[in-house]
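Suppose you are handed a protein chain with no further information: no name, no annotation, nothing but its sequence. What can you learn? This example shows the usual starting point.
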Amino acid sequence: MDTQTQKRFKIWQWRTIIVTMLGYAFFYFVRKNFSFAMPGLAAEYGISNTSFGIVMTIVGIVYGFSRYFNGILADRMNARYHMSIGLALCALASLSFGFMPYILGISIGKAPHILIVAFAILLVLNNIFQGSGFPPCARLLSHWIPPHELATKQSVWNTSHSIGASVLAILCGFIMANMGTDLSNSQQDVDKITKNYVTTLFKDDVKKSSEEINKVVKVCEPVKVEDGYAVDVIYTLKASPAKQDTVTYNFSNAKFIAVKEAVDKAKAEGREIGSSEIAKECDIDKAQARATQAIVTRTEHTGAWQWAFWLPGIIALLGALGLFVFLRDTPKSVGLPELESAKTALDSDAPIDEKARKAFAVKMVYKNPIIWGLAFANFFVYVVRFSVLDWGPKFLTEACGMSYGKAGVTVAAFEIMAIVGTLVAGWVTDKFFAGRAHRTCLWCMVGAGVAMGTFYLFYLNPGMAADWALIGVLAMAGFFIYGPQALIGIAASNQATKKAAATANGLVGIFGYLSTAVSGFGIGWLADHYGWNYVFIGVIAMAIVGILIFLSLWGVGRDGYEKANK
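A reasonable first move is to predict its three-dimensional structure. Written in structure tokens, the prediction is:
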């Protein structure tokens, strides 16, 4: 290229990087908002963690296959239309969520199966459209960035989903903590939300309320008494695991009012009040204090979860318009030459033979053991990542007793440190490992495993660390886990070459989202039946398996261009 062409190429290169970054960030606005809506949905409609997990597993697998097929489509379709139309459809699906109770005529109370089914259908549709987000970007970046710069520049690009997720976390944390309708003066609605909470979410509260409890065997169905509900909790003691005991918690309206007054007084004084302080002021058990405080929050902001769909949906619609206006396709589409350093046997001005294209994809993707190794590794990376991203708002507010606002900040810290970690991982890959992204992945996975282990230690010992320490270790988990999340896609693109990059990323993506069988249903079922304790043990085990797979890939070369031209 002459100097003028090089200058013009650089301008378009960075325009493409920035526009696709912003576009993909908006995809996250209408993908991860469901996680922030879950605590509100659980309280208002009695949806269990297991039900949420089943839905997340189904939609995660749907998204994985959608990415795969959209990857094949992206290698053939103009990225401008592909991404903008896909994002617009995702935004419309998100907006529809908030209207479901009105459409179905469902009020607060026990959720009929039709509501869960309706949410599942909308999530499936949303995730079909979500598949049009990443594959066009993977293809575009391979056309605009040479292989020796891809790790650094794509790491910059890969901060897009962390930017989107962190902004969304803060936005949704604010929405859930400040919006919605105050129904705390309606005893009927308070009763319904109380029943849902103690039925679906109370087990972990009880276990953490006493150092003497070994296992909560069962939280019985609440029984209507006086002006509220009573619930029997059957548990075993650490001193005598073979013996079962029962304690009754009385969630009367009088106790609800007492806790609400304590919470309101603390707010007026500009401070947060913990469950231990509430328990002393109101003369109730710590577990009941935590649960009642959570019920107060949810009754004061009933329906806030709807705005967690509406506002991000509106923003995403505007983002889709921006993509259509500012995005363009490959260098050829704006009159620029293709990169000389990334040419393959398929690069030609002549029409590409479809048979040759398929043969190339089979050789570089489907018969490539390195691609399959990266795909299996991606499974375990995503389990660790989704355990925090998908379930974070729920286990932070329920298991750790955080407010919605603080939970939003915590998830945002996870994503903000992910930005830093992604950039560092890309720089380390090019600086120290000569573009061998899989080597950086190994060290990142080790760091993520250590961070999750530390969080588990703090969880087991509530008095050991303040909220800022919990935020800190989850932030470090984000710093490390997003390195592999970004670099696996880079490694797959390099191994498959630019002509099959989207197909390779689609295949690798399937395995990432097959992980929702573990991070979705698996986590939900464990949380419902055994508590969050076993969830964290499982996540740490997944991290260890991921470490072993990356270790097996240590000797693999940087890219597959030499293989492609043989």
